[in-house]
DNA sequence: TGTTAGCACTCGACCTTGCAGAGTGCTAAC
DNA sequence: GTTAGCACTCTGCAAGGTCGAGTGCTAACA
């Protein structure tokens, strides 16, 4: 039994209506509201088929149908109409672009808020994490006797810093020597290349002089590999509570627990995502069971051409996918534009 | 009518029982469970008095009594017994202290998690914000042609950095000149003193050479005055949902909305708090209406003797104040210890 | 004068019952 | 292959009844 045109139309109608109302959809509703040229009885027959094929299910005998995860999946892959943003919404996006003083964190945070207000779901955004970027500059500055600040910059413009302790006999000139050495030998070099060309040897040479040189190496590694427990920005956490499926506190709890484990949130998106398309993960397609009745819509943003982070929304599986996808796409474009204009 | 010893005992019993059960407390319960030497009828009379005095109220005629905000206030100020932490809990605290690689953000985040798990409420912590600290060191490094990173360190060990654009004709040696000048003239100087001794003049001198010198000044100001929208760390957001008063989603919503406005969360604690004691704010004593049926227990932590940030828990007004206060006190001490040992 | 027992009363929580409405599956007719 | 009709199922809701916890008041007691 294949999904002929009529079945597809019916499935589409059911998904749309359910997204709108959050109530199980009956055959009569479909006949009246969406497909006035066929009767409810016919639709009932088709619905029975669709249920057997796994695209729908019934909460109980005398209720309407609800799309299953495969139902949503088919809808997203085949039946979706592009959504468009209103002129007003487009303006709201542009406003961020033209904003003053674009400090990295603020821009991403604003983007998350914007995305959440566009979709009415909870928005997530990762801070930029350079996958395998290159060392641009390292600097060590003595801040007070016995304490120095190490600052590392990558070619993507990311910055990391850490305070380290020094033995008493080290002076700023020694630090300059070390950072000069590193800058000369490892400029524009990735972490992997560093390993090969011997940053570990440097560690041995210098290790005697700076006990905590390990921390410097670690800092470089974290920055270049993007392995730091990078920042996650959230927007509209409270908005998910508006959705009728989250009226029950127990359902919300598992999502909120995620907020406590930001490293877990990074894993939500994972590494599969290296396409420019908007990605949709529906229900249990997500690895984390905390969000097994949620869907996630995400997209990458880029910095100097390379993907460095992502934005997305998390909502119920009964999500307005068309709208969410458009909003996520536009906001990710916005971030890419902002980061590449400077 | 004054609060004689017996009334105090009864109030104490009611608050304790209500904290425990979250159910309105009846006279019989008190007589049986707490004060077996007086009868329920007597307690009823006393309770009527306590209600008239504003320490209790009744949800409806035939229900028990619930402490009012003034009831909690009197309890916290006069009737509280010190709580103690279990050996196990003390160990958990010490564990953070002895942890490796104490990166600032991680330590504070861990502290928030710890505090939340100790109390079962939501924990908040501000990142260090130096109130009026002193410039320790400024460094400007050219990262690529036309782009420089400015790094500023305060005497509290706080670090801020920002990327600025440069005109083409500026080189690293020029940047060094400028930062040398600032370091020589403003070392160990507060923002207020800088204004007096003329950082604005410097701006005029140098302004011609670096268009974006404003941003450098702004960065210094933000760091020294602690006016940056500093980081707020949260722990156990999901835990508040366990409390019976937050079974209703609408009550949770207003709290979660706070999470979206981190600058508002800073204002929760505000400036009144410059004592070393643990501070308790009950219900509408809080400025923000979002938390009008919550209580907040906070304490400062210090860095080199100066108060730089705070930790606290947010829970229902029916909070185990004794325990919360002890936990908050210990965790704030922990942070102070950690920051001062290095 | 303060304390206590007893009693009538109140109110919410909970259960049962009955009904209306929405929706289905099946069958027979078109 | 499509449709109308019908019996059946299940939820949601409102009405009514009972139970139990708790109160305020009064009268008796120490």
Notes on the protein architecture:
- Two copies of one chain form a homodimer.
- Chain A has 342 residues and is α+β, with helices and mostly antiparallel strands.
- Chain A folds into three domains: 75 residues, Winged helix-like DNA-binding domain superfamily/Winged helix DNA-binding domain (Arc Repressor Mutant, subunit A, Orthogonal Bundle), CATH 1.10.10.10; 155 residues, Beta-Lactamase; 91 residues, Enolase-like, domain 1 (2-Layer Sandwich).
- The first copy, chain A, contains 13 helices and ten strands.
- In chain A, the strands form three sheets. In chain A, strands 7-3-10-9-8 form a five-stranded antiparallel β-sheet. Chain A has a three-stranded antiparallel β-sheet with strand order 4-5-6, covered by helices on one side. A two-stranded antiparallel ribbon of chain A has the order 1-2.
- The model of chain A has no long low-confidence stretch (mean pLDDT 86).
- Chain B binds a DNA duplex (30 and 30 nucleotides) through α2 and α3.
């Amino acid at each position: 039994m294949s999904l002929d045109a009529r079945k597809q139309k019916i499935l589409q109608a059911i998904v749309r209506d359910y997204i709108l109302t959050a109530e199980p959809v009956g055959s009569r509703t479909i006949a009246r509201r969406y497909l006035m040229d066929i009767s409810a009885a016919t639709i009932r027959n088709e619905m029975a088929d669709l249920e057997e094929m796994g695209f729908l299910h019934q909460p109980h005998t005398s209720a309407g149908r609800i799309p299953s995860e495969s139902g949503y999946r088919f809808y997203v892959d085949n039946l979706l109409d592009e959504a468009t943003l209103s002129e007003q919404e487009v303006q709201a996006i542009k406003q961020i672009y033209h904003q003053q003083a674009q400090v990295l964190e603020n821009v991403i945070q604003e983007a998350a808020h914007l995305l959440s207000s566009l979709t009415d779901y909870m928005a997530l955004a990762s801070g930029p994490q350079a996958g395998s970027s290159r060392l641009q500059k390292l600097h060590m500055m003595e801040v007070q006797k016995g304490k120095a600040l190490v600052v590392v910059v990558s070619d993507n413009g990311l910055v990391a810093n850490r305070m380290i302790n020094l033995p008493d006999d080290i002076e700023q000139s020694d630090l300059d020597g070390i950072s000069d050495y590193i800058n000369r030998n490892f400029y524009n070099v990735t972490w992997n290349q560093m390993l090969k060309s011997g940053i570990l040897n440097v560690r041995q040479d210098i290790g005697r002089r700076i006990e905590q040189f390990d921390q410097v190496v670690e800092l470089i590694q974290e920055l270049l590999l993007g392995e730091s427990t990078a920042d996650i920005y959230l927007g509209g956490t409270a908005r998910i509570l508006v959705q009728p499926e989250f009226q029950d506190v127990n359902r919300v709890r598992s999502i909120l627990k995620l907020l406590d484990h930001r490293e877990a949130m990074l894993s939500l998106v994972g590494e599969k995502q290296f396409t420019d398309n908007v990605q949709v993960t529906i229900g249990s397609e997500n690895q984390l069971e905390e969000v097994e009745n949620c869907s996630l819509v995400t997209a990458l943003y880029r910095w100097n051409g390379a993907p460095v982070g992502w934005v997305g929304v998390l909502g119920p599986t009964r999500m307005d996918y068309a709208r969410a996808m458009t909003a996520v796409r536009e906001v990710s474009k916005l971030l890419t534009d902002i980061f590449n204009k400077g």
